[in-house]
Automatic annotation (TrEMBL):
Its main location: cytoplasm. GO terms for cellular component: cytoplasm. This is Universal stress protein. Keywords: Cytoplasm. Residues 1-149 form the UspA domain. Gene3D superfamilies: HUPs. Belongs to the universal stress protein A family.
């Protein structure tokens, strides 16, 4: 395995995912890329006709640069996470959209040999209605996945 893609989000448990994924990659002598997927924020700035009683936002009260600012904040987060791992060879990738699909798409594009993801403790209802990124990736992947269980210890 030569390329390991590590998916991180803003959850503090991402530190454990990044560190364990990086350690595994270094054991294999593999290249590492940290990926973070932003929810698509650009469409919130679109001016649509009224629908479901919603008339849209007041352009004067919304900063139209929010999406760009969020991208910059996220780029900084990825760079900081990469620096934390103290490995100058780490690359980062920021993308937008559905997290599972975006991770799988980039994994194929980057020719990843392994995807590292974490699992979070979610409520049963949340899992039932929304699923989880991890389960969606496991359902659709053709690339091996290393899952890091990150749950709060309730003992």
């Amino acid at each position: 395995m030569k390329k390991v893609l590590i998916a991180i989000d803003y959850n503090p448990n991402s530190q454990e995912v990044a560190e364990k994924g990086h350690s595994l990659a270094k054991t294999m002598g593999a290249e590492v890329c940290l990926i973070h997927v932003m929810a698509q924020v650009a469409h919130y700035g679109m001016r649509y006709p009224t629908f479901m009683g919603y008339e849209g936002y007041d352009a004067g009260s919304v900063d139209i640069n929010v999406a760009n600012e969020m991208r910059e904040v996220t780029k900084n987060y990825l760079e900081t996470a990469a620096n934390h791992l103290n490995d100058p060879g780490i690359t980062t990738h920021l993308t937008e959209g559905d997290a599972a699909n975006a991770i799988l798409d980039y994994a194929k594009q980057w020719n990843a040999d392994l995807i590292v993801i974490g699992t979070h403790s979610h409520s049963v209802l949340e899992k039932l209605f929304m699923g989880t990124v991890a389960s969606k990736i496991l359902e659709k992947t053709t690339i091996p996945v290393y899952v890091v269980p990150v749950k709060k210890d309730n003992t």
